[in-house]
Amino acid sequence: MLQDSSPLDTFESERPRLRALAYRMLGSGAEADDAVQETWLRYDRTDLSEVQNLAAWLTTVVSRVCLNLLRARQARHEESLESFTADWLGAADDDRIPQEEAELADSVGLAMLVVLDRLSPAERIAFVLHDMFDVAFDDIAHMMERSPAAVRQLASRARAKVRGTTTRPADAAHRRHAVEAYLAATRTGDFAALLTLLDPEIELRADASVTGAGRPLTLHGALAVARSALSAAPRANFTVLALVDGSPALVMAPLGRLSLVIRFVFDGTAISSIDIIADPERLHTLEITLV
Length: 291
Fold this sequence. Notes:
Elements: H1 7-26, H2 29-44, H3 54-76, H4 80-89, H5 98-108, H6 110-116, H7 121-132, H8 137-144, H9 148-164, H10 172-188, H11 191-197, E1 198-206, H12 208-211, E2 217-220, H13 222-231, H14 233-236, E3 239-244, E4 247-252, E5 260-267, E6 270-277, H15 280-284, E7 288-290
Parallel strand pairs: 1-6
Antiparallel strand pairs: 1-2, 3-4, 3-7, 4-5, 5-6
């Protein structure tokens, strides 16, 4: 039973997970060990009687330690890949196990380590925690002492940078095809088809004129955005493809009067954000060409 275990035994049961987490954040086995050791020291001198979720508490501590290490590294202008390489070459000299490092490197991918090194410390923490360890944005926000919206934006920027090294941007033909497919799926109520077009972390923004509630609306995530699109299916019959400021978009013009524009932004080949505009002043600033 957990309550019968010594503090050291309890911590040791969490050590492999914490080291894997720290390694992905830092890209260096030596620094990961340092981060886990610092987490142990804080664990050992903290009264945890009121802590209900020890695993979450330890994740918070090791994440903050890693964030501080990344910031210090950035201040020194060090390259984490150099640290990783030195770690690898020095493994035989300090009784470290090269196979363990190889397994960790293989699980992340050396190319990914290089890519992660291009992220800011905050972007890296948010991306690793959410995309690699499936930690909720609300929990990451608590760890990083930021708002959930800010953390979500950090992860989104990091994801765009990561994908930018491996994914070709969508060309004009693909963007047009995707917008046409979005309209077709909305008209037919094809929820599955919509999901294939959307980035999992897509953000939809609708101005106050769209909502009619006097305030704008923001939706996050493919499920929420797809549901919203299907709820607008009746209006899709009045919607057509157009070029808005030169990019494929959708315009709604019942009885020939422009009332709404839907603009799309792509991350690679997926739709990463949607901007719905109905404010008359904003509409008048757009250059619209029907296709």
